[in-house]
Amino acid sequence: MRLPRPRVLAFALALGPAAALAQAPDQPNVGNAVAREELMVPNSLAGAPTPTGYESDLYCYGYLGSDNDPFVAEVTGAKEIAEQIDFTTPNLLYLAAGADRGLRPGDEFWIVTPEHEVVSPMNGNPLGRFYKYRGRGVVHSVEGRTSIFRVVDACTDIPLGSFLKKFEPIPIPLARRTPPAVAGDPPSGKPQGRIIDARDGVVALGQDNDVIVDLGVANGVEPGDFLTIFRYSTGREYGIRPEGAYWVTVPPPAGVEIPRTYLGELAILQVGDRWAIGRITDSYQLIEVGDQVEVK
Hints:
Layout: H1 5-14, H2 17-23, H3 33-39, E1 50-51, H4 55-59, E2 62-65, E3 73-78, E4 86-87, E5 92-95, E6 108-119, E7 126-142, E8 147-154, E9 158-159, E10 163-166, E11 174-175, E12 192-198, E13 210-213, E14 226-232, E15 240-243, E16 246-249, E17 260-271, E18 276-283, E19 292-295
Antiparallel strand pairs: 1-11, 2-7, 3-5, 3-10, 4-9, 5-8, 6-7, 6-10, 7-8, 12-13, 12-19, 13-18, 14-17, 14-19, 15-16, 17-18
């Protein structure tokens, strides 16, 4: 049975405003597209903190230390040594340390190798030695002066002569993103430093590359901070010069003012005393070791 039109409207109004609105025809949306998107996102999620990196950015990278960092034990042999010269998951490694060094079954350690010396890209002064995380493992069994160690997570090949460092979980920081700096934006006035090293020796850097900067706890930098990456355009009396294995840009001399060239930004993942590991989250153009950074 079809109801007369007036009775249909009265019936809808009797059900309440929601039902009446449901009967209304769709109207063209002439509002702001951004506003439409915001209506689709709950207020509790707008601007919510997100992870600034991934576990592999830290657990398979390394850290900056001194030339004589202490270690618990050294890998001196392996069960499969007759067939292999490098080792991986789930190989059993033999250690030159046991109960005499306080090792116990189930103890978890980083597997570390000392790598290159890191120097300032500006003057070549030493800043520390890079130690590479090659994986992790647990103590399988212990004797008086020796132990068996099982590799549980290898990032890359593990050679004899690797060292063990006590494992401590490294949390991935959460942070809220803000728009990166663009041409014409003024300096933040916060601590400045430089990119001093790049993962795997990469020279041409961009988004998702991991780097080390010469800012740390001593400069008030914390995990989750964002750093703006920039350089100054070259001039006739200053500009690019070779320094070690890199070409670096030199700031203009006192009294000379030129705009910054903003290259992108990075998120700080781990902080040491005077160094920090960061992941490049945005890049507008080529980024290199030696480029300057500034806390946002």
